[in-house]
């Protein structure tokens, strides 16, 4: 998976439009389109903004299959904030998805 694939996969994972990802990266939606088609590669500054927004490493975007290295093993961490409450795996997954959504809406 190339940088182009990683960027598209990340955008789809967080259910973002190219315009929304462009705003996060500080570029135009045409630039995001060019990244996803492999016509151009993002500059390091844009990669850093994206990585910071989603709490991932820059290498997850740059390296081959980098997004596949991201694990979703955070339920235990999140569950620590709800000490004493019993959530099913499905409920925790839903909470995490909502947390990702909220995080994706942050402004720089």
TrEMBL record:
<dbReference type="Pfam" id="PF01381">
    <property type="entry name" value="HTH_3"/>
</dbReference>
<keyword id="KW-0238">DNA-binding</keyword>
<dbReference type="InterPro" id="IPR001387">
    <property type="entry name" value="Cro/C1-type_HTH"/>
</dbReference>
<dbReference type="GO" id="GO:0003677">
    <property type="term" value="F:DNA binding"/>
</dbReference>
<dbReference type="InterPro" id="IPR010982">
    <property type="entry name" value="Lambda_DNA-bd_dom_sf"/>
</dbReference>
<protein>
    <submittedName>
        <fullName>Helix-turn-helix domain-containing protein</fullName>
    </submittedName>
</protein>
<feature type="domain" description="HTH cro/C1-type">
    <location>
        <begin position="7"/>
        <end position="61"/>
    </location>
</feature>
């Amino acid at each position: 998976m190339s940088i182009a694939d990683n960027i598209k996969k990340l955008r789809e994972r967080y259910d973002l439009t190219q315009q929304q990802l462009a705003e996060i990266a500080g570029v135009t939606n045409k630039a995001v389109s060019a990244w996803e088609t492999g016509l151009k590669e993002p500059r390091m500054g844009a990669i850093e903004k994206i990585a910071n927004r989603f709490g991932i490493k820059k290498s997850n975007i740059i390296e081959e299959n980098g997004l596949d290295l991201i694990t979703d093993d955070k339920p235990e961490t999140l569950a620590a904030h709800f000490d004493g409450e019993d959530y099913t795996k499905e409920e925790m997954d839903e909470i995490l998805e909502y947390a990702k959504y909220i995080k994706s809406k942050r402004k720089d």
